[in-house]
């Protein structure tokens, strides 16, 4: 029988997933070393839009199955961050501006003409996971955000240094995530530490985070195959 972990041990185990995080994917490594072509950057931005678009839908799924009013009160901020509160605000809008900064029209990003089947499958799997699994597992699956700030900081530095053809104003999305992601992952971690107190629920939380690492990795596999060097 597996022993129950203390909250600190569980957190430690979750944090070891940094090694499976998509920052380690060859596509991101090349991007952060300044080796991506404009076509690769454009393909990545266009495809990642599908992820951005679907994040509020998965956060809505978490809200709909979460019975805890205090958690919902904080969680709802994620939807506001991405959707904004008025026309022209929010993370999805910022991503469209990133698209324009790399040379993609709003229309071609919004109509999904560049969306690869593998990226669609991976993102849809994430949304379905959060709709069908217990809400605490859905929360655990969002904990890849523990590792996102490092990658965002690296990415911002790389874009400013190597990809000078991109207007730095287009990078506002990544700057806003530098503060949003730590706030969100701290909350997610608090929920998982509090609720996952049996071997079964702890194993499910670890599996949820592994699954999410696979979602992000698969997205980059598809993008790399379509746009990367052969
Ligand atoms: O660019 C990235 O590498 C990256 C990764 C992740 C992530 O780790 O899931 C998110 C984001 N960005 C992001 O911008 C974002 O809003 C976000 C929300 C979530 C989530 O699962 O709730 N992950 C991520």
UniProtKB/TrEMBL annotation:
What does the UniProt keyword field contain? Oxidoreductase, PQQ biosynthesis
Q: Please name the pathway.
A: Cofactor biosynthesis; thiamine diphosphate biosynthesis; Cofactor biosynthesis; pyrroloquinoline quinone biosynthesis
Does Mitochondrion count among this protein's keywords? no
**Domain Thiaminase-2/PQQC spans what residues?**
12-221
Q: Recorded E.C. number(s)?
A: 1.3.3.11
- Cite a single Pfam family from the UniProt record: TENA_THI-4
The similarity annotation says:
Belongs to the PqqC family.
Return the protein name. Answer: Pyrroloquinoline-quinone synthase
């Amino acid at each position: 029988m597996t022993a129950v972990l203390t909250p600190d041990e569980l957190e430690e185990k979750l944090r070891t997933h940094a090694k499976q995080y998509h920052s380690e994917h060859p596509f991101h490594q090349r991007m952060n070393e300044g080796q991506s072509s404009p076509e690769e950057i454009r393909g990545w931005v266009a495809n990642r839009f599908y992820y951005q678009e679907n994040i509020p839908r998965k956060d809505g799924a978490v809200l709909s199955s979460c019975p805890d009013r205090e958690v919902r009160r904080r969680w709802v901020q994620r939807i506001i961050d991405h959707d904004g509160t008025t026309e022209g605000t929010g993370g999805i809008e910022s991503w469209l501006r990133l698209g324009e900064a790399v040379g993609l029209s709003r229309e071609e990003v919004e109509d999904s003409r560049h969306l690869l089947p593998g990226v669609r499958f991976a993102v849809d799997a994430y949304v379905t996971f959060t709709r069908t699994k217990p809400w605490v597992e859905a929360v655990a699956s969002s904990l890849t955000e523990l590792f996102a700030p490092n990658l965002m900081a690296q990415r911002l530095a790389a874009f400013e240094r190597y990809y000078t053809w991109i207007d730095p104003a287009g990078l506002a999305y990544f700057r806003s995530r530098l503060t949003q992601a730590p706030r969100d992952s701290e909350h997610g971690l608090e929920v998982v530490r509090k609720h996952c107190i049996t071997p079964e629920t702890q194993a499910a939380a670890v599996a949820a985070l592994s699954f999410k690492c696979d979602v992000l990795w698969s997205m980059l596999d598809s993008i790399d195959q379509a746009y990367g060097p052969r």
